[in-house]
Amino acid sequence: AQTVTQSQPEMSVQEAETVTLSCTYDTSESDYYLFWYKQPPSRQMILVIRQEAYKQQNATENRFSVNFQKAAKSFSLKISDSQLGDAAMYFCAYSSKDAGNMLTFGGGTRLMVKP
Amino acid sequence: GAVVSQHPSWVICKSGTSVKIECRSLDFQATTMFWYRQFPKQSLMLMATSNEGSKATYEQGVEKDKFLINHASLTLSTLTVTSAHPEDSSFYICSAIRGGNSNQPQHFGDGTRLSIL
Questions:
Q1: Tens digits of per-residue pLDDT, B40-89?
Q2: CB within 8 A of A53, min separation 6: which ones?
Q3: How far is CA B39 from the centre of its chain?
Q4: In 3-state terms, chain B is what percent helix, strand and coil (to 5)?
């Protein structure tokens, strides 16, 4: 079974600074997808970024980028120029076609942004 | 596009009653929908996978007679919590995948906060 681990329960960053959230996963599959979801206090799940395992190039979405290390099974999220609105729970997630496209979530990291 | 609507957003009811939660894909067809449960300050736990026209697949430890799932059309899945008790109080979230394409991400509803008195 696949597992996703987020080792940082909480992180704090100063506004306008950069922060990196860690995520590791375990799988025996070669074709899979990795995601970062943001959950603000409203509890809505918002897709931040998505990475396909067969693509070596790291995904980027504006201020959000990932460092995907397939051999190390690591998938960290970097948030640049942090904004107050970035404060939320961030969940790393894994899915694969062989697993029926179900998402396996990490435990989450609470990000606080200091003004 | 890819909007998922979940209703109701919040429900409070007495112990012993049954509660139905709806999950609708508004602008796309979803062969597969998923139901998650989230306790306070915890991650999302998959309860079941709902496939249109067939029986849901439940995760280990989830009582299928307690949590009835119906996926009668390509745009609607329902979760019914039968004879709800206080321990069923939680945040329930659904998600849907556009069509049956494994390349598509899951799109989430806004969730339902269920409180059983």
A1: 889 999 999 988 888 899 999 999 999 999 988 889 999 999 999 999 99
A2: A30, A31, A32, A33, A34, A70
A3: 14
A4: 5, 55, 45
**A81 vs A8, A19, A64, A76, CA distance in Å?**
20, 9, 9, 16
CA distance A91 to chain B (A): 8
CB atoms near residue A56 (< 10 Å)? 8
Peptide bond into B40 cis (omega under 30): no
Q: Which residues of A15-37 are buried (b: 16+ CB within 10 A; e: fewer)?
A: eeeebebbbbbebeeeebbbbbb
Is B95 close to A103, i.e. CB distance below 8 A? yes
Tens-place pLDDT, residues A7-18: 999 999 999 999
B50 touches chain A (CB under 8 A): no
- What are A36-85's pLDDT values in tens digits? 999 999 999 999 999 999 998 999 999 999 999 999 999 999 999 999 99
Using 50, 70 and 90 to split pLDDT, how confident is the model at B31?
A: confident
With vertex at residue B32, the alpha carbon angle to CA A107 and CA A4, rounded to the nearest 5 degrees, is 20
Tokens of B11: 């429900």
| Per-residue model confidence (pLDDT) at position B57 | 92
Q: How many CB atoms lie within 10 A of CB A47?
A: 16
Report phi then psi at A70, rounded to 5.
Answer: -65, -45
User: Are the beta carbons of A104 and B46 separated by less than 8 Å?
Assistant: yes
